[in-house]
Design a protein that fits this description.
Blueprint (H helix, E strand, L loop, with lengths): L3 H8 L3 E3 L2 H23 L5 H23 L2 E3 L2 E2 L15 H50 L6 H4 L2 H6 L3 H39 L1
Parallel strand pairs: 1-2
Antiparallel strand pairs: 2-3
């Protein structure tokens, strides 16, 4: 028949320590503190009988306290026995490695979430940015390079009908050709840039 109080103690969480070396250091520090206390008692001029009694009492008390504490300590996922040795009856488990794995897993999930959001948002953001840039460019070019004047407006119909001077017609024609030579390359360049933008957006998507 199991002891209810023992089962209750097993359910209590143990103090987690990463390595057995850390546990040994804790015991050493505690032992040094007890020895300091004993030295103070000895230096107070008490009788040898009192000093021996106190020394025996502190030694026994220290041993019992360490034994009780070890039953509530877990080193890297392994329970300690009363003598401070690791309980090898339990399944081998590396608690430090387990925490590291969980930490990396959570970090990976966070990065996956961030990348997923960027994949959804980046194409729309790039498209909006390019659209805004193209609109600004069109506006700037329209201010510096007004649209071509239609031929019917540039040369009045009555003037064309009544022109007898061929050189006059030639001058007007050359002026229009010159204006086309200036404007057409700009239109071609804009068309090429627009095609490049469309290709870039397609690659991002």
């Amino acid at each position: 028949m199991s002891n209810p109080s023992s089962e209750g103690r097993d359910d209590l969480p143990r103090i987690s320590i990463e390595t057995i070396k850390d546990w040994e250091k804790i015991k050493t520090n505690f032992s040094e503190a007890v020895q300091t206390c004993l030295d103070e008692i000895i230096s107070s001029g008490r009788s040898s009988h009192v000093r021996e009694a106190v020394s025996a009492h502190l030694t026994e008390w220290q041993s019992r306290l360490v034994d009780a504490a070890s039953r509530n300590v877990r080193v890297n996922g392994h329970n300690l026995e009363g003598d401070g040795e690791i309980d090898r009856g339990t399944e081998m488990f590396d608690e430090v490695l387990d925490r590291r794995i969980w930490s990396l897993s959570e970090e990976r999930i966070a990065w996956d979430k961030t990348l997923s959001q960027r994949r959804r948002q980046a194409p729309a953001q790039v498209e909006a940015l390019l659209t805004d840039l193209l609109e600004r460019q069109d506006e700037a070019e329209s201010q510096h390079h007004p649209a071509l004047t239609p031929l019917s407006d540039a040369v009045p119909e009555r003037s064309l009908q009544n022109l007898d001077n061929i050189s006059g017609v030639q001058a007007i024609t050359m002026e229009l050709v010159s204006e086309l030579n200036t404007t057409v390359p700009q239109l071609v360049e804009r068309a090429e840039r627009g095609q490049m933008v469309i290709q870039d957006v397609a690659m991002v998507e």
